[in-house]
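This section describes the prediction task in plain terms. A model, or a person checking by hand, is given the sequence of a single protein chain and must write out its three-dimensional structure as a string of tokens. No templates, partner chains or ligands are provided. The sample shown here is typical of the held-out split.
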Amino acid sequence: PMTSLNPVYTIGWQIEEQLNEHNDLKKGQARRRAIDLLAQVGIPRPEQRINDYPHQFSGGMRQRVMIALALSCNPDLLIADEPTTALDVTIQAQILELIKNLKRDFGSAVVLITHDLGVVADIADRILVMYAGRIVEEGNKEQIFYDPQHPYTWGLLGSIARLDRPKPRRLTTITGQPPSLINRPRGCSFRPRCPQAFDRCSVEDPALTAKVGDGHLDACHLSVEDKRARRDATISPELAESA
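The expected answer:
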């Protein structure tokens, strides 16, 4: 939101331009619609703020303006790429609540792209975990957080500090670096960083398939039994050591 809005035009001009470009509106209709959109995304005094410039808005307010722009043409699909970046925790919560409310009110589907698993847990219905440009696991919220099947997902969950478990000596990390997308490793792309890798992983790229049912998909050669036996040591090594 800090750089997406044009600094030399008012907020109202930018919303009205988009409305006029994509809709057959009469004079004055675009402005009234822009004011309505600002009100819907929680901008106070929209009749006055519509004449303000981006620098006169806080980061959270600019994000609301961007959401108003995205919703101006009543899309069937809203793509939100890191919508809470550079916002403090309180404003993040407000933006996420706004997205959930607008999803309900406008009937739009939302694709949320984020690295923040806390945001995912709060807002997502279905989750796709991606590594090196490919989906490695797909499932609903309960499946991904409570029964993860891919070692990369284990690494992501294991790197989160938790208050409901013994304090670790240090946070778990995923060793190594992401691979080059133009020179992928043979077999599974996660193999060079995966502590669970075995011979098959170096020659065969695993397909995304349902191994546990109910629409829970993963791309890993390990059997379901092996995954569940090894998973806790990856996500919670301190618990495994004390067991």
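For orientation: Strands lie at 77-81, 109-113, 126-131, 134-140, 209-210, 217-218.
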